[in-house]
Amino acid sequence: MQQILRFLPDRFTSALVGTVLLATFLPCRGVAAEAVSQLAVVAIGLLFFLHGAKLRRAEVLAGMGHWRLHLLIFLFTFVFFPLLGMLGQWLMPHLFPAPLWIGMIFICALPSTVQSSIAFTSIARGNVPAAICSAAASSLFGIFLTPVLVGVMLQAHGAGISLAKIWDIVLQLLVPFLAGHLLRPIIGDWVDRHRVLLSATDRGSILLVVYSAFSAAVVEGLWHMVPLPTLGLIVVANAVLLGIVLSATRWSARRLGFSRTDEVTIVFCGSKKSLAAGVPMANVLFAGPTLGLIVLPLMIFHQMQLMICAWLARRYAASAPAE
User: How many whole angstroms separate alpha carbon 184 and alpha carbon 180?
Assistant: First the structure.
């Protein structure tokens, strides 16, 4: 029973599912939809402001010296993942409707997670300072790189992202992030003391954006465009994507002679994709009725990576040498 319970969704994932159900049966429309959309923009700014305020510069500096490890994680996050996404669409262009393929490509262009990458690295007894540095750097670089990568990947298939959208990312995400980080000397102690409250604010912001996105998608006929077989294909595609990257990160770390603790960090930081960054970015880049379709693969990938990596972290911990 305990083994089964470990694979059940966590509270946040359950809340995401509940939000999608709410949007399905009670979507916001008209003036209410516009109000929720504007509130989501404010919430996104607050979300990235808090991410900037939570970033401890000393922890990042402590892990910066391991450049080979960071370079490998960077290559997996922003090169290997996108190449897999482009290859998949090239090989199977008709597997999904266009918005779902955009969603799969979008997953591949996202930065790594911060909280879960560090948490799983810690559980598996990996190099935590390096994980903190790598995950934080990935999150920051992703603000610039993700829209560029999405634009390049979509351009190869006849679409693209305009420079105006990239500028919107800078204004709505990077500026609040930098403002929060610059104010950390003033508000840092308060932020550290209220991490539970801030975590709830983070998650509430994401849920608000998801509700807004799925409401618009449901009004446009989301569930007529995503029948059950297509939903199953999304799950399989995400499983294949995650499986390839987990195997590749582990093999590369061992082939290049990294220690066990560094291997753990490479596996967990190089295989993750951030829902916390992805949903707000998607809201800026793909605003419109197709947004719900685009973020659907990411929501499925998010839960899948949590379940598989939780199991993998416990295996790493069980095999770690006694201290």
Answer: 6
